[in-house]
Amino acid sequence: MPSKARLALLVLIVVVASGCGDTSDSEAELPAPLAAFRDAAVEHTDRLRPCLEDGGALVDTISPVELAIEPGPALNEEAMAALVNRCRDEAGPPPPRPTDRESIAAIYAGAAEVSDGLREHGYVPTDPPSFETFLDGYANSGGVAWTPYDGVDRLPPEEFNEAKRLCPEWTG
Asked: pTM here?
């Protein structure tokens, strides 16, 4: 990988009714398993970031649960891969994703809201599947059968990350 290539370290992908607007009321509406997952995901990201930075990676926060990393000047491809693996080992595994229907419904609703927000900002994401299709895909694919960024993820990394900053999957 060239040293200038952007490497996205997806800590977690979870959408929590955030869209591109005000999220002040969404936290109170989260199902308990999803709120616990969100809190654990933030803690996991907080453990990853300093390890990556101390190892020489350039780290940019996309959201409270997602980092974009790039090799620093002293890191080649092999050293960067070793650093990422070491930091993942030190941070421990990410929390298990919620599997209850209520949490998955909240994730789906949030993803649809983010998708609408992306369209409002001029991006062209793919249309969301039906909830039943999403539910089936979530159960069978580790939770990432569809995201509101499908279609937008074809942009160059800087533009894609900007879209995610405008309409984050989770804004806390």
From this structure: 0.76
